[in-house]
């Protein structure tokens, strides 16, 4: 039997167990300056991204209290980061070979069918763009803390455009 060991510190929190959340915000973004964006990620955002170890520890704490109520997690805020195929190209400067489903994109008929999503013609206009490079997922116990953290994140990103 082969033993597989995962470094939970290097896996985003929403991948294995899921971020505990009562509220969530999705912030779609476009990379205007790849160099500045990468620098900002390294200097400010990477350490804020919630990893799987943090989620696992919070899950164990909740279980030890014999409760699954996220209100008991008080001020837990989660942050995860994702990239589209266009975002990967922006950051790498080249088009790497990606998984076929990822290559097709969110608006491809195969993707919408597999995800049981509505066709792009039915998408909200606010979520349609010529290019979306990625998404930040902000989660938390209450709407005000998630909104506040989202605004803080947005302010830091807007500064990159100046």
Q: What is the secondary structure topology, with strand pairs?
A:
Elements: H1 13-16, E1 23-29, H2 34-45, H3 52-64, E2 77-83, H4 85-92, H5 100-104, H6 109-114, E3 134-140, H7 143-158
Antiparallel strand pairs: 1-3, 2-3
What's the short story on this structure?
With 162 residues, this protein is α+β, with helices and mostly antiparallel strands.
Please tell me how large the radius of gyration is.
18 Å
Number of contiguous helices: 7
Q: Unreliable runs, pLDDT <50, ≥5 residues? A: none
Question: H/E order of the elements?
Answer: HEHHEHHHEH
| Overall form | globular
Helix content: 25-40%
Measured between the Cα atoms of the first and last residue, the distance is: 55 Å
Total beta strands? 3
Q: Structural class given helices, strands, pairing?
A: alpha+beta
Largest sheet: 3 strands, antiparallel
Q: What is the averaged pLDDT score?
A: 82
Spatial strand arrangement across the major sheet: 1-3-2
Please indicate the percent range of residues in DSSP E strands (runs of 2 or more).
5-15%
């Amino acid at each position: 039997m082969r033993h597989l060991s995962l470094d939970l510190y290097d896996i985003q929190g929403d991948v294995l167990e899921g971020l505990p959340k009562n509220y969530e915000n999705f912030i779609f973004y476009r990379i205007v300056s790849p160099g500045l964006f990468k620098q900002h990620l390294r200097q400010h955002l990477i350490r804020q991204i919630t990893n799987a170890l943090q989620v696992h520890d919070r899950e164990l704490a909740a279980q030890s209290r014999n409760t699954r109520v996220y209100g008991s997690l008080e001020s837990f805020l989660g942050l995860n980061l994702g990239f589209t195929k266009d975002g990967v190209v922006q950051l790498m400067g080249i088009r790497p070979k990606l998984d076929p489903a990822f290559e097709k994109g969110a608006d491809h008929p195969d993707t919408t069918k597999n995800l049981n999503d509505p066709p792009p013609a039915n998408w909200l206009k606010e979520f349609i763009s010529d290019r979306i490079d990625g998404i930040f997922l902000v989660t938390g116990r209450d709407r005000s803390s998630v909104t506040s953290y989202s605004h803080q994140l947005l302010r830091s990103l807007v500064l990159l455009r100046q």
